[in-house]
Known about the structure:
Elements: E1 4-8, H1 15-27, E2 31-36, E3 42-44, E4 50-52, E5 55-56, E6 67-70, H2 75-80, H3 86-96, E7 101-104, H4 108-112, E8 121-122, H5 126-134, E9 138-139, E10 144-147, E11 150-153, H6 159-169
Parallel strand pairs: 1-2, 1-6, 2-5, 6-7, 7-11, 8-9
Antiparallel strand pairs: 3-4, 10-11
Helix pairs in contact: 1-6
Amino acid sequence: xxxxxxxxxxxxxxxxxxxxxxxxxxxxxxxxxxxxxxxxxxxxxxxxxxxxxxxxxxxxxxxxxxxxxxxxxxxxxxxxxxxxxxxxxxxxxxxxxxxxxxxxxxxxxxxxxxxxxxxxxxxxxxxxxxxxxxxxxxxxxxxxxxxxxxxxxxxxxxxxxxxxxxxxxxx
Length: 171
């Protein structure tokens, strides 16, 4: 049965960190649903990729999804600026309930807001690692890290390993 993967996304996401995992998820027979501030609005990546938001964060229910994808770029930092903390709360469902969670580059920033990183092993782009460590995670410098349900990678250079780990988690 196809699984439904939520993607938290807003402007200035790293284009390839969305398009490449999305392609891998869909090629493995699963579905991607983009969640953002406003349904049917358009968000634009750092390099011009245009993506339509399928569901607003106000209407999104995490239990409706079988996984979570958090691409990097500036999108995660913008999403963390949500005054109501809705994106961190949404992500917390996945970390708390051991539902597959995939974050690359700056994507793990959103996981900091879950308060569920203590004792978990993660990786991220260099300038996010200290924040993850301060949130209680053990941080390593590897192309992909799988800690139970959480899969993290550092940069677009790691996409092949990241995508393979995503597909493996969704089997």
